[in-house]
Amino acid sequence: MIESVAIVGTGLIGTSIGLALRRAGFDGEIVGVDAKGDEAAMAVSMGACDRVGAFDDVWKCDVVVLAVPVLTILDFLGRLAPLMGPDQLITDVGSTKLQIFEMVRSLRGNEVRVRMLPGHPMAGKESGGAELGDAGLFEGAMWLFTPAEEEWDVEREWREWVTRFGARTMDMDARRHDQVCAWVSHLPQMVATAMAAMYEDEFGAEPEIAAEFQAIGGRALREMTRLGASPYSMWRDVAMSNTEPLAATLFALEQRLQHLREGLRTPELREEFRLANAFRARK
C-alpha cells in the first residue's frame, strides 16, 4: 500500500500531482524536493506537499515521481535505482520515453531491484512554476505509460491514483510514444517557438510596430504563439532525447510550407484547406 510519495521537481506538473493526490483522497505523506527551495516551499504552502525534503528522504518513499526534465530524470534514476527495493516504485512525467525505457531495461539487466513505470501526462500550461499548480490539471487528459515489465501491486495502485485524478490512461511502446509525441506535442511547440521568435526578431526592436502587433493581433496570433512562453530547460531535453523523430516532423513541415507557398495562386491551395478541414472535422 502506498503510504508515502516523494515528488522530485515541484514545478507546475509536480505541484499539480501533489494537489491532485490530496483532492483524490490520498492521506499519506507527500515530500517535495526541488533544487529551487522557493518552489518546494511554495508547493508546501499550497498543500501539495507536507514538507520540503532532501535526497535521503526520496529513496525511502513508497513512490518517487520524477517531475523534472528528461536528462535530469535519467540522472535521478541512475542515483535512486540502486537504493530502492522491489516494493517501491519510481515513475516520471517526462515528455520522451525511449531513453528512460532503455535505461530501466539496462538497470534491470544489472539486477537492480527497483520497479520503474515510465509515464507522461499529456497536460500542462505554457508557463511553469509551483504557483500555477492545479489539482484539476489532469482531468480528461491522457496519461501515457510505457511499462518496461509486467504489472505489479505498487504499479497497479499508482495507476489507480492517476485515474482518480480524472485522467485517462494508455500503454504504448516507448519508441512509438516518442514518434507520436513528436507529431502531436513536440512539433506544435517548435512551430509556436519559431513563430514567436520570428516576430520578436523582426519587430521586437521597433516598439511602435510591436505595439501595433499587440493591439491588432487577435485570437489567431495569441493561440499560434501561446506555447512560445514555454521554458527552454524542458524543451532542450526533449530536443536532445528525441532528435530524429522531431527533426523528421520539422522536415515534413518545411516541405508542406514550401508546397503551400508555391500553391498560393493555384488550385492546390483549395486542396490544402480541404485536407485541413477534414482533419479538424475528426475531433
Automatic annotation (TrEMBL):
It comes from the Bacteria. The lineage of its organism: Bacteria, Pseudomonadati, Acidobacteriota, Terriglobia, Terriglobales. Keywords: Oxidoreductase. Pfam families: PDH_C, PDH_N. Residues 3-283 form the Prephenate/arogenate dehydrogenase domain. Gene3D superfamilies: 6-phosphogluconate dehydrogenase C-terminal like domain, NAD(P)-binding Rossmann-like Domain. One of its GO terms (biological process) is tyrosine biosynthetic process. PANTHER family: PREPHENATE DEHYDROGENASE, PREPHENATE DEHYDROGENASE [NADP(+)]. GO terms for molecular function: NAD+ binding; prephenate dehydrogenase (NAD+) activity; prephenate dehydrogenase (NADP+) activity. The keyword Glycosyltransferase does not apply. It comes from Granulicella tundricola (strain ATCC BAA-1859 / DSM 23138 / MP5ACTX9). This is Prephenate dehydrogenase.
